Each structure stands twice: as C-alpha cells, then as structure tokens.
Amino acid sequence: MSRHERWAVAAVALMLIAGAAIFLYAPTDYLQGPVQRIFYLHVSSAIAAYGCFAVVLVGGIIYLRNESLVADRFARAGALVGLVFTTVTLVMGMMWAKPIWGSYWTWDPRLTSTLVL
User: What is the pTM of this model?
Assistant: First the structure.
C-alpha cells in the first residue's frame, strides 16, 4: 500500500468516526430536534467549498503570473471538487430547510447566487 493510499484510508476512517459521532455523541437540539444534525455536514461542506475555490484563486494567479501548467491543473481540480462540495451544501441546506421553514427553497439572493455559482 502506497503512502497516498494510507492517507486516503486514514481520511475515510476519520470521516466515518465523525459521521458516527454526529448520530451517537452529539446532543439533539431543543428547538430543531434531530434535523439540526444536518448542519454538521452542511457547514463543513460549505467550508470545504470555500477552501477549494481558494485553491482555484491561488492556482489561477500563479498560472497567470508564471504560466505554470501545474498551477492550472490544481485550479481545475479545485474547481471540480468545489462544485461537488457546493452541491452537497445546497442539497443539505434544502433537506434542513423543509422541516424548519416549510419549503425546500426560498429565493433569497445569497441562496440564488450560490446556485448560480
């Protein structure tokens, strides 16, 4: 097993432990009930999406300055992963919004601009 595979196995194991902690360890919110547990995935996905798009920004700047193909590849990879995390953020937000707000979507400018992103 290569070094990268060991890191991937460790990352998956830690994610499974964190997922178990959401359902087994974290207390249930008084007002929202078990629906609040969706936020543990929703917020972390949003933070990861911001991180991915920061990689796109840095990679794009380095590419424009040095014409480095490696920086361009990092930026493209960050964009693809950022798209996945943004989609997860929107879907988890809709799953939370239905029982709390009574609808899956509100046409709030922040939500709509994230969807357009």
Answer: 0.80
As a whole number of angstroms, the distance between CA 90 and CA 19 comes to 19
Integer Cα distance of 27 and 6 in angstroms: 32
**DSSP code at position 31:** T
> Cα angle at 37 between 14 and 51, to 5 degrees?
55
- 97-112 pLDDT, tens digit each: 888 888 888 888 888 8
Q: Mapping DSSP to helix (H, G, I), strand (E, B) and coil, where does residue 29 land?
A: strand
Query: For residues 84 and 73, what is the distance between their CA atoms, to the nearest angstrom?
Result: 17
Structure tokens at 105: 């979507």
Q: Is 61:105 a contact under the CB 8 Å cutoff?
A: no
Closest to 69 measured CA to CA, from 79, 78, 59: 59
Q: What is the DSSP string of 77-107?
A: HHHHHHHHHHHHHHHHHHHHHHHHHSSS---
Rounded CA gap, 39 and 23, in Å?
Answer: 12
